[in-house]
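Request: Could I get any protein with tokenized structure?
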Amino acid sequence: MSAKQKILVVVESIDIEDSSGAKANVALINNLQSAGYHLKVVHYTRKDIQISDIECVAVKENRRSLYFYLSRLERQIRYILKIKLSKPLENIFGFSFTLFNDRDSIISALNVLDLSEFDLVLTLSQGGRFRPHHALLKLPHFHNKWMAYIHDPYPMHLYPEPYPWKEPGYKIKAEFMEEVAIKAAFHAFPSRLLMEWMGNYFEGFAKKGIVIPHQILEEQFNLEATPNYFDASKFNIIHSGNLLWGRDPKGLINGYLKFLTSNSEAKNQSCLMFLGGKNHYTKQLLHYHERYLSIYVSRSYVPFEETQYIQKNSAVNVILEAKADTSPFLPGKFPHCVLANKPILLLGPPVSESRRLLGEDYRFWSEIDSEEIIADLLGELYRDWKLKSGNLSLNRPDLENYLSVEHLRSVVNTVFKKIEA
């Protein structure tokens, strides 16, 4: 194996403020570089963004194609005539004209590259967005070196409860994913449970899948000032990120209020914080925020560096998942919580990737609506916090290693061995 393998990464966004998926992708890109590989990143962020010491090429949108004009025509019909054509069009074609134009724009950027320069081509998805994968399907000469990264279940009707629903054109979307499963030489998933979940529907994923978890990315952020809403001397319980539908915070909030009832001194010593932009539960959260001084809710998006600072300087980080039997997702913030090295209060299904990694015997786990258990767990954490003068730690070197550059290198090297065999 050569000392400096070269990887071409094709990704939709490298803007860390875009979404948790973009943050996870940037962390993976950085750690691949740190692992000793030479990277070239082709991205469709639509901004001139650079990653330190990595060659990044922004794809230019083709604004002269038939798909571009059709997408703009559809948009004008929607705005001017108030006629929504997106669903019937996707029922026919499977995807939007915008996606087809974006795919072709990425293909044009890739066609000018010399494939022989690269030992591996890695496409990164972002939630339910797979533009790089659409592009690679149209470039068969890449397929023997292609590793397709699947961030979440897809299509949407393959999501676990309570999320599944049939999108317009869902059969065509499933055919697209079947093509990826067949034609990509390798498939990577952030979660073992997700790999098994998708492998139940597409045989190729079960045969060729590997697990590359979301990465710990150690960055030094220099805040100009500590946020005025944050008092690091308190017993702070922090939930960061958007609360998508299904991730109901009611059980956590009521559990916290019951904890305060049993620990009256904690009323002035603690704070339950929700950091993230407007979401499905904003109205509910603000109701509690207005009634209780010790519940803080941000009213807008909180920058990544500010969130990481608060995660590292709080007492407890919360991971909140939907009420369900299983959750195959590895939350994008899981590595951030491990890096913060504070106890994680895991609220979610009895079977989940987060619980698998933390261990079934991990103390601080509950289903999201078990208010009494949540209150008891917060009480236990609070007593530990007082006993240890506020110095609580997760102390999981095994997870730090699993999410590390060293583990990433060992997994990717197995892929290169198969390519070279």
